[in-house]
Amino acid sequence: MHLTDVAGRTLVTLAFVGTSGCTPTDTVDSPARVVFVSAGDRQAGRPGERLPVPLAVTVRDDRGGPAAAVPVAWVLAVNGVVAPLGQATESDGVARAEFTLGDLTGTASVVAVVVAVDSVYFTFSARPAEDTPLPFDRYLDLTFATFDGSGETVHPDHARVPWALPRQLAITPYPGGNAGFELPSVFSGRTADRWSLAPGAPNPVVPAPPFGHHSDPDLVWNPERQEAWLYYREASTGNIIWLTTSPDGIRWSAPVRVITVPSHELISPAVVRRGADDWWMWSINGGPVGCSAAAVTLEVRRSTDGLTWGEPTALALAHDGLMPWHVDVAWIESRQEYWAVYNAKRPGSCTTPAVFLARSPDGFAWTPVRQPLVAKGDDPRLRDIVYRASFEYLPAEDRLALWVSGARYEAGVWTWSTVLINRRAGTALDTKVPAPPPVFAPPPAELIDWP
To answer: What is the topology classification, in CATH, of domain 2-126?
Structure first.
């Protein structure tokens, strides 16, 4: 048997006796093959930490259907311990395991041997712990060397990548609320609170459009292509969603148009890749008016490749006279559910007062937590507006890291900032005691234009 990596390259030839009483001559009813690694490869973590996403291999039969009860052995673990979640593929054709990194920094790996079929090589990175554990419930100022020199930012979106600087944050400058500078930029970091441009990285990633403006960047790691995918929105004659990709954060492809709809029917795209052929995009339909509309709608689209998207499905997510305005969504593997973080608006208003959390078992039906994660006035930089936020959940620490943008209003000018706040997820998710509706003071002024 040949051991191969996820790109199909032969690593070593292995002779063995079958696992769990099976030998290579024991076969399932029809021939089976490994078709892809569905999750877990190329993760990074701290030494001694269990990786948040379980490892998974998918096995198909000769007709392309899921092959159940195919024995799988997890072997040759290096710098870590593997814990199989069963000895064979389940009814969906998937075999899963959990991996805990060893005590050393550097590379870790494990091999999944699909008996009598093939094998797959997983590799991981064990990186040093952050210099100082970041505190809970303290607002940390974030600085960015924006191309315009203002350092004013909005629309953060966080993603992990298997590069030397494993954190990426897409964001747009927004000096004084000037949309002409709102160009997607990507900063790199080793920790959640320190961001810089990688050597040679473009700033911004894409130039301004001929007319209108860009906004709403969203980053996704594509393990099949080993690329970061950056979606962003052009607001001009309509709403256009563009996609540019990069293997290293330095070289970015020419943008490709993936969705075009009338204004303002696609705001703040939030893309989640669940598998090679399972992509989701949530967004806000603001109708022809946008944020000053009396009502807006959360929608979801599906795709098999991240490029061609189906028609939207309208979803319900409103509470206490508030409705979502910009949204970020993630699949929380350890809890087997989706989480959404969104700033909420009142009917007819663009000045959003708070960021909330909602949960969903299937991506369609959402249950909000009615107490805000962050409200205006919680931090001086977010005194009058709390806007788009991004997040990461770290189950080993019960940590919900939030990158939150917002603004304060002084002397007729909005000043925009992005901060980091860490919440305990157990507290943030607590809905045992019914919460009273939140009450927010009127804004000092209304946004005439909105980012």
So the answer is: Immunoglobulin-like (2.60.40)
